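Duplicate of #3305? Posting structure anyway:
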């Protein structure tokens, strides 16, 4: 039967579990993706302490994170993979920060009902990368809170500035006075 023209050949056997066979190029792309995108850490993984400066380190016990599905474009990946990361820092329960830094953080940061600082990242399609991004954002936020705002120095206008202001007012008043009705 095989040698006859017009005869049908037997169907190709299916790959295990009914999946199509992957081309060599697809296998190579998967290998590259596996090396570039490490697997996401499990949610119950122990988080490392977060180093802010040489003197301040936020302990891992004050940090927690969760993953959720990210919104926006991304095709089927958006509906399947939880890549958005919510990083939370227990501001009220930490002893790692001085009180004045905590006060500034309360003003600068978004907080939940329990007073924990929330940092959300959904920039990339990788959960691990988003977690690192959220940690970096928290470091930047704490560093910004550690910078004390400059105190405003009260100033008063100089004598020359007062004189120029009064002369300008006088000229303006004369100009408006001349706009009145003309008496012939």
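Output from current build:
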């Amino acid at each position: 039967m095989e040698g006859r023209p017009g005869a049908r050949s037997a169907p190709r056997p299916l790959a295990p579990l009914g999946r199509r066979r992957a081309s060599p190029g697809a296998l190579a792309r998967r290998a590259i993706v596996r090396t570039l995108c490490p697997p996401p850490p499990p949610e119950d993984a122990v988080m490392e302490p977060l180093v802010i400066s040489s003197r301040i380190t936020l302990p891992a016990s004050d940090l927690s994170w969760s993953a959720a599905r990210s919104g926006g474009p991304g095709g089927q990946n958006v509906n399947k993979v939880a890549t958005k990361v919510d990083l939370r820092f227990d501001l009220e329960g930490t002893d790692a920060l001085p009180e004045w830094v905590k006060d500034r953080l309360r003003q600068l940061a978004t907080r939940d009902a329990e007073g924990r600082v929330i940092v959300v990242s959904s920039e990339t399609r990788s959960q691990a990368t988003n977690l690192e991004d959220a940690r970096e954002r928290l470091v930047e936020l704490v560093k910004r809170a550690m910078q004390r705002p400059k105190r405003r120095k009260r100033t008063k206008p100089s004598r020359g500035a007062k004189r120029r202001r009064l002369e300008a007012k006088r000229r303006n008043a004369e100009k408006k006075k001349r706009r009145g009705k003309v008496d012939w």
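Confirmed duplicate; merging threads. The chain has a mean pLDDT of 81. The radius of gyration is 33 Å.
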